[in-house]
Design a protein that fits this description.
Elements: E1 23-25, H1 41-46, H2 49-58, E2 61-64, E3 69-72, H3 75-83, E4 88-89, H4 96-101, H5 112-118, H6 121-124, H7 126-151, H8 157-174, H9 181-195, H10 202-228, H11 234-239, H12 245-275, H13 278-286, H14 291-301, E5 307-312, E6 316-318, E7 321-323, E8 328-332, H15 333-336, H16 371-389, E9 394-395, E10 402-404, E11 410-413, E12 416-417
Parallel strand pairs: 3-8
Antiparallel strand pairs: 1-6, 2-3, 4-5, 5-8, 6-7, 9-12, 10-11
């Protein structure tokens, strides 16, 4: 057993749990991965959680022909992969993300990864968020909540509020003063569709390529402007650093993807979960300090980025399953965060559950650099104001809400009503 306490990436607190040592060298004995030829992408998109439950119960790792990779579903195995970049490389060959967005920091190992990541530090550090970005987030939240209210009951929470709010925040964080929040939404969706294009749909690739070219043009226009007119944005900071243009382009496309869909989806999923659990909603309204707990439970319950890739660097045995060198893995955070060996009643949304570190924002050297931005704009600003501004907020019973996705998962339809 590994005796190193797991550290919560959000609070820095350490849990008392121990994580079983999951890896043996190639000399260890193991069995072949079971083949999950019953797993279909269409079923994963609709509802992956029963599939993940069955897979976890059968084995921690399966070969899944439909996605052409091994899917890793146990918490301990996913945790081990996150902590060991020597054996599990982020620099995957034939990467879908590289094809869609370029070679960003998410598909680099150290030391190259750290160089790119450090270039983001000045913009995304917590002190900068508190001193600069929170006021901007609050102003944007007021604007887009007012637009939602103007549409009236029956408006869609995702597309009439959460998406434009988080897109406008991201536009300013990135420094795209030559673009709109609608551009950000289109770029984000098409680029992440490419990243998750395990079905190899040519139309998806075409849309991703078109957006990639648009982003390149926007960056090329903004870099000289921001060099002469600096601000607190990522592009402004990058314009002052000796970072290759291709790295800037790839990292900004990565940021447009995750920096929009994660806070958008967490915001909508958290509100959906609270509206579906009235007792927990009452508790949060009584004590707004619980919004942060609701945020953390939401990303555990439905990880907005449900799976990401890794590649083995040598023959090894992972939790009893033999993996060859060069094996393409899918680290399924959406499954790991519902592992009953770690979380009691994991399929349930419960803001009062025992605090244990989830894996929703990754871990190790690739822990999500935008976590503090997401927490600020969602848990600290948006959630309290949503329930303050929309009295007796509830889901519209005339039109069902829909959640969907597996590589990326969130609400795709969420009509709401409230007392005018």
């Amino acid at each position: 057993m590994s005796q190193t306490p797991a550290t919560c990436p959000f609070t820095g607190a350490q849990s008392a749990q121990t994580v079983p040592a999951a890896i043996e060298t190639s000399t260890g004995e193991g069995r072949e991965a079971p083949v999950a030829d019953w797993v279909k992408i269409s079923d994963l998109y609709t509802n992956p959680f029963p599939i993940y439950k069955r897979m976890r119960e059968e084995a921690p790792v399966h070969w899944v022909p439909e996605v052409n990779r091994y899917m890793v579903t146990s918490y301990s195995a996913c945790h081990e992969i996150e902590q060991n970049e020597a054996l599990f490389s982020a620099d995957e060959r034939n990467s879908l993300m590289k094809r869609s967005m370029g070679h960003s920091m998410l598909r680099k190992d150290n030391p190259e990864h750290q160089v790119d990541r450090d270039s983001y530090g000045a913009t995304l550090r917590p002190a900068t968020i508190k001193k600069h970005w929170n006021d901007i987030f609050a102003a944007n939240n007021e604007k887009y909540l007012a637009q939602l209210v103007a549409k009236g009951p029956g408006a869609d929470f995702v597309w009439d509020y959460a998406a434009p709010y988080t897109a406008e925040n991201l536009r300013l964080i990135c420094g795209f003063h030559n673009s709109t929040q609608a551009d950000m939404q289109r770029w984000s969706q098409t680029l992440i569709d490419g990243t998750g294009n395990y079905a190899d749909d040519p139309e998806v690739w075409a849309k991703a390529a078109a957006s990639s070219a648009e982003v390149d043009a926007a960056i090329d226009e903004m870099l000289p402007y921001l060099a002469a007119n600096p601000d607190r944005s990522l592009l402004s900071n990058l314009a002052s650093l000796p970072i290759p243009l291709e790295a800037i382009r790839a990292n900004l496309k990565m940021t447009i993807g995750g920096g929009l869909n994660e806070p958008r989806d967490v915001l909508a999923t958290t509100v959906w979960a609270l509206l579906s659990n009235p007792e927990q909603l009452d508790a949060v309204l009584e004590d707004p300090g619980l919004f942060s707990r609701a945020f953390e439970e939401s990303v555990r319950w439905v990880a907005p980025i449900g799976m990401y890739p890794r590649e083995t660097t040598q023959d090894l045995v992972l939790e009893g399953i033999k993996l060859p060198a060069g094996a393409r893995l899918g680290v399924v955070l959406g499954a790991a965060n519902r592992d009953p060996k770690v979380f009691t009643d994991p399929e349930e949304f419960n803001i009062f559950r025992e605090k244990k570190p989830h894996l929703a924002f990754g871990g190790g050297v690739h822990f999500c650099a935008g976590t503090w931005i997401a927490r600020a704009q969602v848990a600290q600003i948006a959630l309290p104001e949503v329930f303050r501004s929309l009295p007796n907020l509830r889901l519209d019973p005339r039109s069902a809400s829909i959640d969907a996705g597996w590589v990326f998962r969130g609400m795709t339809k969420m009509p709401i009503i409230w007392d005018s």
